[in-house]
Amino acid sequence: MTTDVKFDALPDLRRPGVGVVKSSVWRMGTPERQRAAVAAIAEAWGSRDWPDVGLLSYSVYTGTDGDGLLHYSQWESEAAYQDFFRRFRDGRNAEIDAAVPGIERVGLHSYELYRSSDPRPGDPRTPGCVVIVDVEFEGPDPDRQRAWVDGVFEALDSDPALPSGWLAAQFHTSLDGTRVLNYAEWESERAHVEALAAPGAGIGSKTPQWARVRDFPGVTGGGVTRYLPALTVTPAA
């Protein structure tokens, strides 16, 4: 089975059959190295047959900070990823490393999709920017992960004035019980920048529901990073 490489494309986040999502970041240092790595990834994957081991899609995004590359892949199961790791990963990475030496790979985490907010009915816009919100907790507790996400949905549902540039969000809980990843879809990078610059405490109105999210017990850290779609690879039809 051949591999289909599509530049500037996003994955189907509502694809059925996804059991595990893998997410990680590569530190590249400069926009030039970001672009070189994207080209090397496209060559390493596009020149090989699709690894038919339960991988559904693999997407790469360039950080607007000029440094990071976000990797987001959808798998049927953890066993499928481990099979790929044993049989196919090293050859691809060796080719990429030869083209762009010195890549720093950090933070590979495993997630499952817990809850999703859909775009507004009839909204024809497509995401031009993906904002990744990482939330870290003080220890493993799946109930706490889900409670935090449920609190965000209560805040979203009761918010009288959500930013117009926000389209949807996909909330992932890590399999080790310690993290939440919010994959937020925005109309553009500019829309997110303007929403953060608006009066108030960032995204979200000044409501009791958002206050509970911001003061949620057990949250120890996290971050917010903007990314632009670079490529998505899938098995060719």
Shape: globular
Report the helical percentage: 25-40%
Largest sheet: 8 strands, antiparallel, barrel
Strand tally is 9
Number of helices: 6
Range of strand content: 35-45%
Look at the structure and give the mean pLDDT: 95
> What is the CA-atom radius of gyration, in angstroms?
18 Å
Strand order of the largest sheet: 2-4-3-9-6-8-7-5
Q: Which consecutive residue ranges, at least 5 long each, have pLDDT under 50?
A: none
Describe the structure in your own words:
- The protein is α+β, with helices and mostly antiparallel strands.
- The chain has six helices and nine strands; from the N terminus they run ββαββααββαββααβ.
- Strands 2-4-3-9-6-8-7-5 form an eight-stranded antiparallel beta barrel, surrounded by four helices.
- β3 and β4 form a beta hairpin.
- The termini are close together.
Compact description:
With 237 residues, the protein is of the alpha+beta class. The protein has helices spanning 31-46, 78-87, 89-99, 142-158, 189-197, 208-214; strands spanning 3-7, 20-27, 55-63, 68-75, 104-117, 129-137, 166-174, 179-186, 219-235.
Task: Give the SSE map.
Blueprint: E1 3-7, E2 20-27, H1 31-46, E3 55-63, E4 68-75, H2 78-87, H3 89-99, E5 104-117, E6 129-137, H4 142-158, E7 166-174, E8 179-186, H5 189-197, H6 208-214, E9 219-235
Antiparallel strand pairs: 1-9, 2-4, 2-5, 3-4, 3-9, 5-7, 6-8, 6-9, 7-8
Tags for this model:
eight-stranded antiparallel β-barrel, alpha+beta, 37% strand, 237 residues, 9 strands
